[in-house]
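Our preliminary data section would be incomplete without showing what the modeling component actually yields. Below, a chain of 181 amino acids is followed by its predicted structure, encoded as tokens that our downstream tools consume directly.
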Amino acid sequence: MATGRADPLRRERILAATLDHIVEEGAAGVSHRKIAARAGVPLGLMPYHFSGMDALLRDAFTGFAGRIVGVFEEHLGGARTPAHACEAVAELIHRLAEGPRRELVLTQELYTLAARHPEYRDLTRIWMRHSRHLLEKHFDADTACQLDALIEGLVLHQALDNDTPHSRDRTLQAVIRLTST
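Predicted structure:
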């Protein structure tokens, strides 16, 4: 692993180390010292890549949000009919709920920051706009907004309530009920 000034992957390692740290200890525990040690970079080079802790967290969460939008694109991109789009949404919900716990933790940490700090609310708004835009390729704007909320809610419930998980059929039925007018 290169650690000199010419290391082209240093910034990406720092961002990955930041997300790893957040998953393990939460966003409140992030410090330049901890992230530099985790990423294997000299502490003195952190300001070269990020103007401060907020810039580091925003960039890390921006990359994470972009990856989740990619999951939306992957699931919704191939849908050609309203019925296929409903099935894609149901599959998306289960992919997000049953996927790596890391994604759930990062999502909730971002939402906690957004609840307290306007600059993170802006980031979540951009994320929501992207996901709604993808849903609007298959549903009207109001339905897309409601579906986005349903996705978030069901993912959280599915991930945290293992006692009463939704089957894919039950999830699909909820999506169909919401989208039928």
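Residues 108 and 137 are 27 Å apart (CA to CA). The mean pLDDT is 91. Preliminary results of this kind motivate Aim 1 of the renewal.
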